[in-house]
Design a protein that fits this description.
This is Phage virion morphogenesis protein. The chain is built from six helices and four strands. The chain is mainly alpha-helical. The chain has one domain. α2 packs antiparallel against α6.
């Protein structure tokens, strides 16, 4: 007669895998924090998540910021865009958002992608200063992508212990 031992452990691990989607909230939160940290690092380091330095401020912008007692840092006026990222999660998704606007103008998009025809006279060009860890084609920045993959694999391995 053949006796198989340890099936109980295998059954528990398989049950854990089966119930994975109901237990992903901690993982999803961690992945969302990874994205949020990448965005915040971009503001802090004044470069895109892809490593490209943000274009310097124009002399007129710098002069105006100094005159009004604002920060000399790139992408910082009052800190609203840099400091107000919100993470929302469910068991299946994470979203990192920022609804900051100035006089009704959602300036995050203008800074991420650049804009022509800005300002009161509609003659100002704002250079792109990307801060989101996604390129124009929707590709996630490689370090962020690797971190997300590693965190996901670790989560599943821990679940199977």
């Amino acid at each position: 007669m053949i006796e198989i031992k340890g099936l109980e452990k295998l059954q528990v691990k398989l049950k854990n895998l089966q119930n994975l989607q109901n237990r992903t909230a901690p993982l999803i939160t961690q992945l969302g924090e990874t994205l949020k940290n990448s965005i915040e690092d971009s503001f802090e380091n004044e470069k895109s998540p892809f490593g490209e330095r943000h274009k310097p401020l124009s002399q007129s912008t710098l002069k105006n910021k100094l005159k009004n007692g604002k920060s000399e840092r790139i992408l910082r006026r009052d800190g609203n865009l840099a400091d107000n990222w919100v993470l929302n999660t469910t068991n299946t998704k994470a979203s990192v958002s920022n609804n900051t606007n100035f006089k009704g103008f959602a300036y995050g998009l203008a800074h991420q992608f650049g804009a022509n025809g800005a300002g009161r006279g509609k003659n100002i060009k704002i250079p792109a200063r990307p801060f989101l860890p996604v390129d124009k084609n929707g590709k996630l920045e490689s370090r962020t992508e690797n971190t997300i993959k590693n965190e996901t694999v670790k989560f599943i391995k821990d679940l199977l212990k």
